[in-house]
Amino acid sequence: MERGPCYGFCAIYGLEIFKDGVVMFNGRGYVAKKGVHSGSISRASIERLKRSIEESGVEGLKNDCCNCYDMSDAPSTTLTISDGINSKTIKHYHGCLRAPKALQQLEQTIDELSGDIQWIGTLDDREAHRWYR
């Protein structure tokens, strides 16, 4: 998952979660820790993530379904899901009003399960410290 910039203090980073539970984070801007960092998640979290992906219905979405610009200055997310054979990439501009809520919920679930808050910091942290690109 890649999170892009916005007009404000949106964290800019890349995040990968592997099937063995390894998490790779690459902070690029407006994050507490820039650069590459790693961690891990439990088998239970991996299973919850798999269920969340299945329940979200993203496999049935078109790749550009959510890359419209109904509002400006919003962040973007590029989500790629791969099983090692097949992959699906969805570009989601958060100013696109027709994006399904399930997609945004899946993105939030990925953030939560990955534990990326340890590298990103909270929104209050980003605003207080003004970590620049």
Quick recap:
This protein has 133 residues and is an alpha+beta fold. The chain contains 4 helices and 6 strands. The model has no long low-confidence stretch (mean pLDDT 92).
Radius of gyration in whole Å, from Cα? 15 Å
Beta-strand level of the residues, as a percent range? 25-35%
- SSE series: EEEEHEEHHH
Distance between the termini: 19 Å
Shape by Cα distribution? globular
Q: Structural class of the helix and strand makeup?
A: alpha+beta
What is the CATH-assigned architecture?
A: 2-Layer Sandwich
Count helical runs: 4
Largest sheet: 6 strands, antiparallel
Could you please say which CATH topology applies here?
Mago nashi protein
CATH homologous superfamily (4th level) name? Mago nashi
Number of E-type strands = 6
Task: Specify the helix fraction band.
Answer: 25-40%
Task: List the strand order in the largest sheet.
Answer: 4-3-2-1-5-6
Instruction: Flag low-confidence runs.
Output: none
Explained architecture:
This protein is 29% helix and 27% strand. The protein is an alpha+beta fold and 133 residues long. It has one domain (2-124): Mago nashi protein (2-Layer Sandwich), CATH 3.30.1560. A hairpin with a 4-residue loop joins strand 2 (12-17) and strand 3. Helix 1 (43-56) packs antiparallel against helix 2 (101-114). The model has no long low-confidence stretch (mean pLDDT 92).
